[in-house]
């Protein structure tokens, strides 16, 4: 196959590309330039946006003796990931830009361009497994469960994940991946993992949001509806947040307070005790199903955060299967609107299988 | 065999330049007074004389640098600062289509040294109007520290009216520098006859080694150093001279010329003309031989260069490249090309180019354009499946 390997400059994508080469594919490396103005060097643990990262990706391609190009996808990234990120915070929701990037850039813009240019598949360094059956792509958790990234891939849907290869889905551990990089002399074998949001150069998300969204003050209300303080903009808050509330006096009971709700229409931030965060279920929309949509009640596991634990639940779908009613077996804390929910149904033959992705409202 | 059509970026090393580089006698630092030092110095000076002769300068007018960029920066900043000594002359006059070596140096002068930079606009053909130069000189004449006007643009080959600029500037006593990097070796260059205060040349654009260039500077040109050091090269460019590089550069300069690059490109011009608008050749009325800018409406230069590279044909997109990212070209934007500014391919030939290279490009272009168009027509998620 002709394979386009997305190379971020990190160890995972480099080893994934190496494994694609080993598998006998004709591999071409592409580094996506997602920011028009990029820092010359990497700072902290941000992913792939500096020129240093692009240079690492190039050296990986040199090491693998494959052609290498940098493609400027910054326009789409700005429009589909950064603007969305801002709009979601503006609306009082909590977005996951990595999910958006997979959904709209890697497995959309990049994959479509790759297809148009004659590539048979796109290869990335994500930890997840893909299989194809008559109904299209099926997504499963990675063998290396602690690194599993099926959660951030699910939004790409069965269409987006068609003709995608994820060689690291079967890797036993990150240590094994690093060892493979080391053996091949890949320069990024010991490069730190990235965690932070790649497009926020200093890691200061609140500062970034303030700069891009400005200030829009409003009241902070306690569980009785009493104003206990003011804020400079709802975008500085996320449901479940405890720090930085700026509420001067402690609650009457002396216990900590958390953000329980954000109302964008009224610019209000609601706070309350930890119990107020507890939810027994939620509704999610824009569901994308891998395979046929479940009818009736589906016993399953749901995950609502990239590194969150899966929770036992029952999901019922409505509205042409685009709307999911999720009922949790045991209550959980802090579910924020805007978060992705990924529904996993255990398949006796194949293990945990992603059956749907939807967005919490 | 690979087809190389990117001479304007860097020419392959000429065999004679490689041999001269390897054979150069450089047993010591050319500034040393002992015998090995004198031998190294002799290598440098012989190279200087050859280069001076090749470009119509005196050998005392050749200041070796690390390349065209350093020569440009030294000229613009060095003349600018020297011209502040006896009077306040904050204006720097350049064109909108300079190489970044001039454009970004001018930006630095503006940001840190109080300069006021005026960029002369170009017409749709990429050439500055002489009347515009005259008008700006009329308005600011006495306050202009330096004018820099590129001899030929690196993306389009457009030749600028440098002679006119020199004549007009002379009335106001303003020194003129010209970036000759894309001119040298392609047309006869006579520095002394040019009336220029300074001109930049680069070795690797004419088949010499990379990492060496020169600023041709008239003896009476006001010029101060912009970096400090041991005072080599007339005290304006400190640092040990790369004697070996200078020898290679001189050999390339000696060998340059003699190729009819326009005749080589004629079949490409004809093929583009026959394409029915699929590709458009943006050849300016005045241009140096060997460079063609072709825009391909509806296609991205990033994709076109990729597809050609896949076929073993090396051409370049806009010249603005940072870590491999093809940015929109300021030159094409200055020409008012708008969206087409990201669809430009630069084809450039030189000493080793053959008609087989051009034939290979002509054969591949229609096929590549078809694929690039299909890739561009892929719906963007913005219109498509965004929820």
Note the gap between the termini of chain B: 48 Å
Helix content of chain B: 25-40%
Rg for CA atoms of chain B: 22 Å
The CATH architecture term of the largest domain in chain A is 3-Layer(aba) Sandwich
Q: Which CATH class of the largest domain in chain A is shown? A: Alpha Beta
Task: Write down the overall mean pLDDT of chain B.
Answer: 93
* Helix content class of chain A: 25-40%
- Show unreliable segments of chain B: 381-387
The largest β sheet of chain B comes out as: 7 strands, mixed
Q: What fraction of the residues of chain A are assigned to beta strands by DSSP?
A: 25-35%
CATH secondary-structure class of the largest domain in chain B: Alpha Beta
Question: Order of strands in the sheet with the most strands of chain A?
Answer: 12-15-14-13-16-17
- What is the oligomer described by this structure? heterodimer
Describe this entry's structure for a reader:
The complex is a heterodimer of chains A (361) and B (387). Chain A is an alpha/beta fold and 361 residues long. Chain A folds into 3 domains: 2-184, HUPs (Rossmann fold, 3-Layer(aba) Sandwich), CATH 3.40.50; 215-272, SH3 type barrels; 277-360, Beta Barrel (Elongation Factor Tu (Ef-tu), domain 3), CATH 2.40.30. Chain A is 25% helix and 30% strand. Chain A is built from 8 helices and 17 strands. Chain A has helices spanning 11-22, 51-64, 74-90, 97-116, 150-153, 157-160, 174-184, 205-213, and strands spanning 2-6, 26-33, 68-72, 121-123, 129-133, 136-140, 164-165, 218-221, 227-231, 258-263, 268-272, 278-289, 297-303, 311-318, 323-333, 340-347, 351-360. Chain A has a 6-stranded antiparallel barrel with strand order 12-15-14-13-16-17. Chain A has a 5-stranded parallel sheet with strand order 3-2-1-4-7, sandwiched between helices. Chain A has a 4-stranded mixed sheet with strand order 9-8-11-10, with no helix packed on it. In chain A, strand 8 (218-221) and strand 9 form a beta hairpin. In chain A, helix 1 packs parallel to helix 2. The model of chain A has no long low-confidence stretch (mean pLDDT 90). The model of chain B is unreliable at 381-387 (pLDDT under 50). Chain B folds into 2 domains: 3-9 and 258-377, Alpha-Beta Complex (Aspartate Aminotransferase, domain 1); 15-255, Type I PLP-dependent aspartate aminotransferase-like (Major domain) (Aspartate Aminotransferase, domain 2). In chain B, helix 1 runs antiparallel to helix 8 (243-255) and helix 5 packs parallel to helix 6. Chain B has helices at 15-23, 35-54, 68-82, 100-113, 130-140, 162-172, 191-194, 243-255, 261-273, 301-310, 330-334, 355-377, and strands spanning 3-4, 62-65, 91-95, 116-120, 144-148, 176-179, 198-202, 213-217, 280-281, 291-295, 313-314, 321-322, 325-326, 344-348. Chain B starts with a strand and ends in a 10-residue tail after the last helix. In chain B, the strands form 4 sheets. Chain B has a 7-stranded mixed sheet, with helices on both faces. Chain B has a 3-stranded antiparallel sheet with strand order 9-10-14. With 387 residues, chain B is α/β, with parallel strands linked by helices. The chains are: A alpha/beta (361), B alpha/beta (387). The interface between A and B is medium-sized, with 26 and 24 residues.
């Amino acid at each position: 196959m002709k394979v386009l390997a997305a190379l971020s400059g990190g160890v995972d994508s480099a080893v994934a590309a190496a494994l694609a080469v080993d598998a006998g594919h004709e591999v071409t490396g592409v580094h996506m330039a997602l920011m028009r103005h990029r820092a010359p060097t990497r700072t902290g643990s941000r992913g792939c946006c500096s020129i240093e990262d692009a240079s690492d990706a190039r050296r990986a391609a040199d090491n693998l003796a494959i052609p290498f190009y940098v493609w400027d996808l910054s326009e789409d990234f700005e429009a589909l990931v950064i603007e969305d990120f801002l709009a979601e915070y503006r609306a009082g929701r909590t977005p996951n830009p990595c999910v958006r990037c997979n959904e709209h850039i890697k497995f959309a813009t990049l994959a479509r361009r790759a297809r148009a240019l004659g590539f048979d598949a796109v290869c990335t360094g994500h930890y997840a497994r893909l299989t194809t059956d008559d109904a299209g792509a099926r997504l499963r958790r990675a063998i290396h469960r602690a690194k599993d990234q099926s959660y951030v891939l699910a939004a790409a849907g069965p269409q987006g994940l068609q003709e995608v290869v994820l060689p690291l889905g079967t890797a036993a551990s990150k240590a094994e991946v690093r060892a493979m990089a080391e053996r091949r002399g890949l320069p990024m074998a010991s490069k730190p993992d990235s965690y932070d949001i790649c497009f926020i150069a200093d890691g200061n998300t609140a500062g970034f949001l303030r700069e891009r969204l400005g200030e829009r003050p409003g009241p902070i209300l306690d569980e009785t509806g009493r104003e206990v303080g003011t804020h400079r903009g709802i975008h500085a808050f996320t449901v479940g947040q405890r720090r930085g509330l700026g509420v001067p006096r402690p609650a009457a009971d002396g216990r900590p307070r958390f953000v329980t709700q954000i109302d964008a229409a009224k610019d209000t931030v609601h706070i309350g005790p930890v119990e107020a965060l507890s939810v027994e279920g939620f509704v999610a929309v824009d569901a994308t199903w891998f395979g046929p949509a479940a009818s009736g009640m589906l016993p399953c596991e749901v995950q609502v955060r990239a590194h969150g634990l899966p929770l036992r639940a029952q999901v019922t779908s409505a509205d042409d299967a685009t709307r999911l009613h999720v009922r949790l077996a045991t209550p959980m804390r802090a579910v924020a609107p805007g978060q992705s929910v990924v529904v996993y149904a255990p398949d006796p033959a194949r293990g945990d299988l992603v059956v749907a992705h939807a967005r919490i409202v | 065999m690979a087809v190389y059509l990117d001479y304007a970026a860097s020419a392959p090393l000429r065999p004679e330049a490689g041999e001269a580089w390897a054979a150069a006698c450089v047993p010591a630092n050319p500034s040393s007074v002992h015998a090995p030092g004198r031998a190294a110095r002799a290598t440098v000076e012989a190279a200087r004389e050859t280069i001076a002769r090749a470009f119509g300068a005196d050998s005392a007018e050749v200041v070796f640098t690390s390349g065209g960029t350093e020569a440009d920066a030294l000229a613009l900043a060095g003349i600018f600062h020297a011209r502040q000594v006896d009077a306040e002359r904050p204006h720097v006059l350049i064109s909108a289509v300079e190489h970044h070596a001039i454009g970004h140096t001018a930006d630095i002068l503006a940001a840190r040294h109080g300069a006021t930079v005026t960029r002369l606009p170009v017409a749709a053909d990429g050439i500055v109007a002489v009347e515009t130069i005259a008008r700006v000189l009329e308005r600011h004449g006495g306050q202009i520290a330096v004018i820099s006007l590129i001899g030929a643009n690196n993306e389009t080959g457009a030749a600028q009216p440098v002679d006119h600029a020199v004549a007009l500037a002379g009335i106001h006593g303003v020194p003129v520098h010209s970036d000759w990097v894309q001119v040298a070796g392609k047309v006869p260059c006579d520095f002394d006859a040019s009336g220029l205060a300074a001109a930049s040349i680069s070795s690797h654009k004419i088949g010499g080694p990379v990492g060496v260039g020169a600023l041709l500077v008239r003896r009476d040109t006001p010029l101060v150093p912009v970096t400090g050091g041991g005072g080599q090269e007339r005290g304006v460019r400190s640092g040990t001279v790369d004697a070996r590089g200078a020898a290679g550069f001189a050999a390339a300069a000696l060998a340059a010329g003699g190729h009819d690059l326009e005749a080589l490109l004629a079949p490409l011009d004809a093929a583009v003309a026959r394409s029915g608008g699929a590709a458009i050749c943006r050849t300016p009325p005045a241009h140096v031989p060997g460079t063609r800018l072709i825009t391909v409406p509806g296609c991205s230069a990033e994709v076109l260069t990729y597809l050609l590279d896949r076929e073993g044909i090396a051409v370049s997109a806009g010249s603005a490249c940072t870590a491999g990212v093809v940015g929109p070209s300021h030159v094409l934007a200055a020409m008012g090309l708008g969206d087409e500014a990201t669809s430009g391919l630069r084809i450039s030939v030189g000493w080793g180019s053959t008609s087989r290279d051009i034939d290979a490009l002509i054969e591949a272009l229609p096929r590549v354009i078809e694929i690039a168009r299909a890739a561009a027509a892929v719906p963007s998620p913005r219109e498509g499946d965004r929820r």
